[in-house]
UniProtKB/TrEMBL annotation, chains A, B, C, D:
The keyword Isomerase applies. GO terms for molecular function: isomerase activity; metal ion binding. The keyword Manganese applies. Keywords: Isomerase, Manganese, Metal-binding. It comes from the Bacteria. Pfam families: AP_endonuc_2. This is L-rhamnose isomerase/sugar isomerase. Residues 103-288 form the Xylose isomerase-like TIM barrel domain. InterPro entries: L-rhamnose_isomerase, Xyl_isomerase-like_sf, Xyl_isomerase-like_TIM-brl.
Length: 426, 426, 426, 426
């Protein structure tokens, strides 16, 4: 949608100020023996997947307020992600949700992927909703259901997801199991776990050996007494029983109040079981807000763990899948996603600028105030010039949201797709 | 739906055992100088309103699993509540939700009310969803919206609610204001409050002097950074500014983790500002589960405050409106409501059996263990025979859920209304 | 302190009423095909350990209000527990805390144990406080400390605990590791875990093969950013790495808000890793209140899991150690402990009365309302006559707190030990 | 302790880099039409009171780890605060705690105040601990106690506090009422409130008309079932009943999980009832960590409310008292306080740099993403050069913690006061 010339034109008036700010920061970092360009190179490489289901307006059970121009099919979803990737150079992949994104025209999709420079990142199964013409209902569970036939249907759905994903080059299956119970007594807690374990093993068995399965956890919602996989400990135990290609997925909104998420991230890396992230922002629960909008310091601390582990050769964690999982009720979804990616890149940049050697020394000598200051020092830096420079070097916009608005993208999408187009999904 | 004969027949096989249990408990209480029949009389008088929107299957943003036979219009909703009232004699009123329950045939409805022995309890306005053909959207708020025209529309909707209610004999307007913001900065917190205050004043002004306005509070959802009325303090301050006919409504699910709700109930009664309840069960947030299903002791402690205040002549609180507000995803809605009412009656019965004189003395002398034991003593009593006796004396079923099932009510409703009938509402 | 005659005399005036209530309940249960005497037999067998540190007044950082008569040494602590055991027949063991309870006169202690019918249940190490003349401070950690010498000191302390315990016949070492950090950056999260793992392995190595190590977890306090062992997942992973004699200890107050603890209990039993409990009551955090005083339904649901697993031959969990861990600021500690044991026995009795066959069927057929009702049915029973009968059959008091008061125990203890005696401990 | 020359020498090697950074930021702000010097002027004026009780090592109920050199009397406490004020020019006042800080030598203290440029900010009463030789115990409450004599003692203590404060020029009484209950039933919730109200009225009556009373709230600890003043609504209602010189004090750690504190701040300002702050950092509850160490964005959002209200002429809130209330277990208390003040100044500087006109416009037009970006834009700025410049202009150190360490202050204090000196207080 954006030609290189168009982006160049949009960047032109901002270029001088950007150059000034970037140069100042590069000099400042250089005086600290840090290399701005090296950080920029890392940012340019960093990619975070966009969820197909976040391209349309989300909402709560109380209502939705669509704004129009939403993608009506998988092809248009690729188009939207391609557009984001043009703007920020950091969104080269897309997470699919089956059955919302069942591919029809594989060849056409492959061509679109090439055109936009996109890959398919992960396939997400959905056994938390009943689909039309489905033989059995998931009202009382899917992979954990008491009836073998329902479990088999849910297993098969996951295998179908793998097959769709293989056609498009994906190599990750993400399982968020919404099974649980609303009342004490409703579900036999141990048996529900065992049935789930058995079902996951059947899916794992059917998974190609170069795939990985990511297992999410969530303490509540859609069930409000118990969830079969409520915490990282349960996900971890399931992964242990499945094999080395099963790993834990951390969704930032899936924790009880006050959880220290960065510590969970550290633990999982140490166990070699951190499979991936669903980034979003949370104040109360699974709020699915813009990543970094509510707890920017937490986001930085998470990236601090990631960078620290990445530099520690004793850590043998697999490649981590970075994905956004958000829902937008009041913002333009595409603006929200651009903001999320920007906040993620900022947190990553800051984590890269932590003086780890000095921090290590302060930690080893229990110099509490100094250790804290060393972390804060990186957090307090204004790294926006580094992020903007990464955009620029990727051929994107210095200020993606501003460019998106200036180019009137939403208006064009509404014209093309209509005011009432509603993206498939929740 | 149930004739007196039918209920008598259903009770018949349970009668002997009931009589045995009731007599035992009456004797036991009598030895404690407590009068079982007096408690039963209180229970018979106690009525809790059924929300029209809880007669159909609810759900979360992730999916719903309707079970069929749901009421398709206001007349059928009255029918369902009438049926519940036949079974338990404690559900003689219904809360309406506008626009889901706009009455069409007033005379017909009045006749139905008489037939079922029902009254309309409260009218609930809805400015958290956009209705078709609505001039302005509530995407960015209603009574707190920045635009006067949107506020005016929302004010007018509330006035319409009052007018609908007047036609049906209601005298309470319940305002749950879902306005809020998802991101820091989105909303000017003070101005949003002031606009809300002004809007509520306009509605209050239009309200007949024998009506009361109930103002709910809720800390989050549908908005996840701030809600305009997040806590009892805000509701209370608004009521103070409006006048004596505005009071606070406490929804058991609308609190932050670990809140001592019974203390809030006590405070509001003391201030003469407790207007009513939305009863439901909650483990995490606004889970809308069966009342008493998760925290039965808390429910008892709330009733303990209510009974205590009712017997304290220095407390000048207005009549409290008892209403259920729940949502049912996995249970039959009518069974859920019968259970909720039963749990409420049980908590009330236990609260009536607290030895308040002894408790008072233990409190005044700081005999902690004894004060606690006195409360627990009432809580630990098995008061089910009292509740069953109240059902019986009201002409209902000794075991309402059992009778409901034995009579095959749901199957009949499905036959009448269809497998796919979906109740209006969320 | 109580002779059999004295207890008999105290029971005498209550006996007739007790007999009446017990007989009624036994008849009622019999009509349900349940055997009251069988439940009583289980209750008589059930023993819960009393923590030596809960025999004196506890408190918060803000102050303490000792009431006098507190045990001044280990011998007097045994005396207090012996007295509790006389009263309720359910407290035949004591948990020690080293260094607060270092035994001096082993032979004398053994004799006291025999006299009171007590065993030593578990030895608890303490590396969260600095003891006078200790070579290294635990200010910055113990088993996780950055300095090998500090870790070695903490390891040795745990080994000392084992040795003290062996002298007294204990076979359990309980490790609550208070290590953690107050600020982001203070502690390297992965390295702290690895050092802890290594230290625990050294202790485990030194532990006799017929001992078990219980590893507690706690999300916060005394550290407020991170704890090295914050959750069951971390405890579990450590146990896995240590061996089959290391198991997880669940303290009811050591969870984040809204945690479903009974599910954790179920998981751990399923993994064969539930080692024991620290029972107490909690509204906000580690409040250390009387067990069952705040969330009696939760306590029942926990026992429901325990009973369910005990009857499931596929579960191969080791024997679970039942211990109280509480702190008393406003109640007489001994009254508090009597109440705690009573609440525990009540929850256990109710769990024994769940109709598991019917529940199983309801669960398998997803009859949600019925499954819930089956659990609630047991919870709502007034089982106090069963608990009292168990007391009676054990030779204790029908109403232990009442007997304790009637006998003027506290007054005598104050006379013997003084108004200002302060128990060792926190 | 620091001469101007000493501070100059310590600043000297940092001066060039500071100048470079400050000039760059001033230029950048100038291009945004913002005036760095104006912000610096505001920062120079800003003063936050240091609590006398935070000058020594704090701790939890589990243990303390004093580091030595703690002030042994009020004079030495003034000395410590004087030293902080020399270093940062922002700590010109001290909060006293009675009875820990009962002044003996008024004239001497006045001279010290003059010497150090300090004022006494607020006097804090303490009725949560029993003092030696106190007639009645506060075990079961103070201002809310059931016994009039105990209440009278607590009232008198507060009046004594006022009198001590008058001698030293204070004009604020801070009341943190720790009264509450640990068990349901222990306290009659309504009567406890009424007794408290009456007691506070007696104190208010005795307070000079140019004083203000600040009423804190706290949801739990030291009591774990109910606190008499648990939330802002209760504080507010008490202030309303007392008069215009009673206002609410917000302690950042005194809230339930997930509370939106900045909204409470906004509400109270709007009601003209925000009296002051106790700043500290919190992850779980009343953790009393370094201000801004855990949730820096929240601290900024609070200052955003403060600055916004300060510029709004329709807001008629009294002067807000800014105080720190923290406890230090692992850090040097003085370093912790320097960090806290620095974080507060940083948050204030950022709040001053919000483009309020643009924000207002974005809010009024519901441009959500832009409104959010405008706030974040200020938050992401690295304002440390502004804070350092404020220190410099106040005659302090460019980097106070660094200067404190370079000067070997703690070592000197230990030499003067001893390794085992323990500050009065908790």
């Amino acid at each position: 949608m954006f030609t290189a010339q168009r982006l160049h034109d949009l960047n032109q008036p901002l270029q001088a100020e950007h150059q000034l700010q970037f140069q100042y920061l590069a000099d400042l970092l250089s005086r600290r023996n840090q290399d701005a360009q090296e950080v920029v190179r890392e940012l340019v490489k960093f990619q975070v997947a966009i969820p197909s289901w976040a391209l349309g307006t989300g909402g709560t059970r109380f209502g939705r307020y669509p704004l129009g121009g939403e993608p009506r099919n998988l092809e248009e979803k690729l188009g939207d992600v391609g557009l984001l990737h043009q703007l920020n150079g950091s969104s080269n992949s897309i997470s699919l949700h089956i059955p919302w994104d069942i591919p029809q025209d594989i060849a056409g999709l492959e061509q679109l992927q090439q055109e936009y420079g996109l890959v398919i990142d992960s396939v997400n199964s959905n056994t938390f909703q009943d689909q039309k013409d489905q033989a059995f209902s998931y009202k009382f569970g899917s992979l954990s259901h008491t009836e073998p036939a329902v479990r088999q249907q849910a297993i098969q759905h996951n295998i179908d997801c793998i097959n769709y994903g293989r056609q498009l080059g994906a190599r990750t299956l993400t399982v968020w199991l919404a099974d649980g119970s609303n009342f004490p007594g409703q579900q036999h807690l141990r048996r529900a776990y065992l049935r789930t374990q058995e079902s996951l093993a059947a899916i794992y068995e059917a998974m190609p050996s170069d795939w990985q399965m990511l297992i999410e956890y969530k303490p509540y919602e859609p069930h409000f007494y118990s969830m079969v996989i409520p915490d990282w400990g349960t996900s971890y135990s399931l992964c242990q029983s499945l094999g080395k290609n099963a790993n834990v997925l951390v969704d930032l909104g899936h924790h009880l109040p006050n959880t220290n998420i960065e510590q969970i991230v550290g633990r999982l890396q140490q166990f070699g079981r951190l499979g991936g992230f669903h980034f979003n922002g949370s104040m109360y629960g699974d709020d699915d807000l813009t990543t970094g909008s509510i707890k920017p310091f937490q986001l930085f601390l998470i990236f601090n763990e990631l960078v620290d582990a990445a530099r520690d050769t004793s850590v043998t964690n697999p490649l981590v899948a970075y994905m956004i999982d958000a829902s937008h009720n009041t913002k333009d979804p595409l603006e929200d996603l651009l903001q999320s990616v920007e906040n993620i890149l900022g947190a990553y940049a800051k984590a890269l600028l932590v003086d780890r050697e000095a921090l290590h020394e302060a930690q080893e000598t229990n110099d509490v105030a100094r250790a804290e200051e060393l972390l804060r020092d990186a957090f307090l830096l204004d790294v926006r010039p580094l992020v903007a420079e990464a955009y620029r070097q990727s051929g994107g916009a210095l200020k993606p949201v501003q460019a998106y608005r200036a180019a009137g993208v939403r208006e064009q999408l509404i014209q093309q797709r209509g005011k009432r187009s509603v993206s498939t999904g929740l």
